[in-house]
Specification:
three-stranded antiparallel sheet, 3 helices
Length: 84
Amino acid sequence: MKKSEVKVAVEHMRYSKEFEAEVWDRCSKYTWGYATPRVPYLLGYFMFEGERIPFDKDFVGRNELIIHALIEKIQLDKVNRQRK
């Protein structure tokens, strides 16, 4: 996962620059010793922060499937935090 891919996806979904920074900050915690963040995936799902999340089927490329689903998950977390 690259920062530029996250930036393009956040812009495509019309979220703010602040939200983009939050998404990248949460993703960048999972590098597992590599230079860029990694998201383990298998059979249409990926793991993020201990949760199994399904791919976003509206996209074609594997990275797009994961990144867009990840952004939606982070957005839902943000909304749920604000409700509390």
